[in-house]
């Protein structure tokens, strides 16, 4: 169902304080579903190429929705359906170029319709697109095929004549302290890219991912149960990214894929726990931004962000402050149990101090944006009262001032925007 969405004042305040809770996450997810439905409607109306394919996809999707509305809503609300819908819409509006023929991109709707038909237990026969000799159906995976691909749906199964065996997406799951989570580890979907490094190909094994995921979940469920509850409510997909060098771990969230993010293989449970919190903060804020404007999209002011080397617009600074406030909160909760937590907490808390002070000095925030920033300030002020070893605090301050000075030299500015 497409309808206007918003969050309640209490949900807004909870999000501003860095959390939100499962009910708020579910409200944001419902808004994403409506967004996806609107984009799919636009695609179906604007796609003027292969009309027979479009009409068959729309007809199949309509029958599937009528037969199993909840199951199909889960599919249409999924992150990588959102990523496809956003990319395809941009192409149809002339704002994005790609090597894939536009008709093939639009006809991914047929693959989505095939998945919906299987979930709903209805029969269908659809011509689905082939991406470089590979056919992808959301939830079912990837298969190799030369030539035209016709998907037949019957008895809850999707078959493609002449195709190889499906390479299905894997799952990661964990349970600790009565809290459970299950997510897709997607190394096959054609719309899993868009991060600052490419996604991996098919993983030979996911045993290492599962082991560290279970450890990270135990850490969160034990020491940050409210974070765990949010993740269980809203995190749906992890996308393995290529390790481009041997020293740096990477992760990134794409705004159009709510509840999904990409990451390189984590080496430690603590690292993964921090990454889960970090990236899900971005998903939450992106979901909120789809229903509430927090800054002026036409603003040209740029800011120093302690975690970046490039000047950031106010929207980027807002994302960074929110994500790092969540990281600081997690390190705070891990102070008694993780050896490096005091040092990490001191550094991240100082980064949030600088970013938040700069954000408060911005003239580009809306009234809602100012309220959101005030909510973050209240949380930070409580953190600022925590006793951390003075030498760690001084070291964090020196490091950040050095980073800021280097940033000024790099960008040839003497500005000290809201320097604490």
What does this structure look like?
- It is a single chain.
- The chain is an alpha+beta fold.
- The chain folds into two domains: 47-160, no CATH class; 170-410, no CATH class.
- Helices cover 52% and strands 12% of the residues.
- The protein contains 14 helices and twelve strands.
- The strands form four sheets. It has a five-stranded mixed β-sheet with strand order 6-7-8-10-9.
- Helix 8 crosses helix 10 and helix 10 (269-289) runs antiparallel to helix 11.
- 44% of the residues are buried.
- The mean pLDDT is 94.
- This is HEXXH motif domain-containing protein.
- It comes from Paractinoplanes deccanensis.
Spell out the blueprint of helices and strands:
Layout (H helix, E strand, L loop, with lengths): L8 H8 L5 H25 L4 H17 L1 H8 L2 H14 L9 H5 L1 H13 L3 E5 L5 E4 L3 E4 L4 E6 L2 E4 L9 E7 L2 E7 L21 H17 L1 H10 L2 E4 L10 E2 L7 E4 L5 H21 L12 E2 L8 E2 H20 L7 H20 L6 H18 L5 H21 L10
Summarize this, please?
The chain has 420 residues and is α+β, with helices and mostly antiparallel strands. It is 52% helix and 12% strand.
């Amino acid at each position: 169902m497409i309808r206007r969405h918003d969050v309640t004042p209490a949900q807004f305040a909870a999000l501003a304080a860095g959390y939100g809770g499962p009910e708020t996450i579910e409200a944001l997810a419902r808004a994403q579903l409506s967004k996806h439905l609107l984009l799919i409607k636009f695609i179906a109306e604007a796609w003027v190429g292969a009309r027979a394919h479009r009409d068959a996809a729309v007809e199949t999707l309509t029958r599937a929705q009528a037969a199993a509305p909840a199951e199909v809503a889960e599919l249409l609300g999924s992150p990588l359906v959102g990523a496809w819908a956003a990319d395809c819409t941009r192409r149809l509006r002339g704002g994005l170029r790609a090597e894939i023929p536009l008709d093939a991109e639009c006809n991914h709707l047929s693959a989505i319709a095939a998945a919906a038909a299987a979930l709903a237990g209805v029969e269908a026969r659809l011509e689905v697109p082939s991406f470089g000799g590979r056919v992808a159906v959301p939830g079912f995976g990837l298969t190799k095929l030369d030539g035209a691909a016709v998907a037949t749906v019957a008895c809850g199964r999707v078959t493609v004549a002449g195709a190889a065996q499906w390479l299905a997406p894997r799952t990661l799951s964990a349970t600790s302290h009565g809290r459970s989570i299950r997510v897709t580890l997607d190394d096959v979907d054609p719309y899993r890219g868009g991060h600052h490094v490419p996604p991996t190909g098919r993983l030979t094994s996911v045993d290492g991912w599962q082991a560290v995921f279970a450890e990270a979940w135990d850490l969160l469920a034990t020491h940050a149960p409210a974070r765990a509850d949010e993740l269980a409510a809203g995190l749906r997909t992890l996308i393995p990214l290529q390790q481009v060098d041997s020293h740096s771990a990477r992760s990134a969230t794409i705004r159009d894929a709510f509840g999904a993010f990409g990451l390189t293989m984590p080496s430690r449970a603590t690292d993964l726990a921090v990454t889960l919190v970090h990236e899900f903060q971005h998903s939450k804020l992106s979901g909120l931004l789809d229903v509430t404007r927090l800054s002026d999209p036409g603003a040209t002011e740029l800011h120093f962000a302690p975690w970046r080397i490039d000047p950031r617009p106010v929207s980027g600074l807002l994302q960074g402050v929110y994500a790092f406030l969540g990281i600081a909160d997690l390190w705070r909760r891990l102070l008694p149990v993780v050896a490096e937590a005091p040092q990490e907490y001191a550094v991240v808390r100082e980064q949030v101090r600088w970013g938040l002070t700069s954000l408060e000095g911005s003239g580009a925030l809306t009234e809602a944006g100012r309220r959101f920033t005030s909510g973050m300030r209240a949380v930070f002020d409580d953190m600022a009262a925590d006793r951390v070893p003075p030498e760690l605090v001084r070291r964090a301050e020196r490091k950040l001032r050095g980073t800021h000075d280097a940033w000024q030299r790099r960008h040839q500015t003497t500005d000290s925007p809201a320097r604490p």
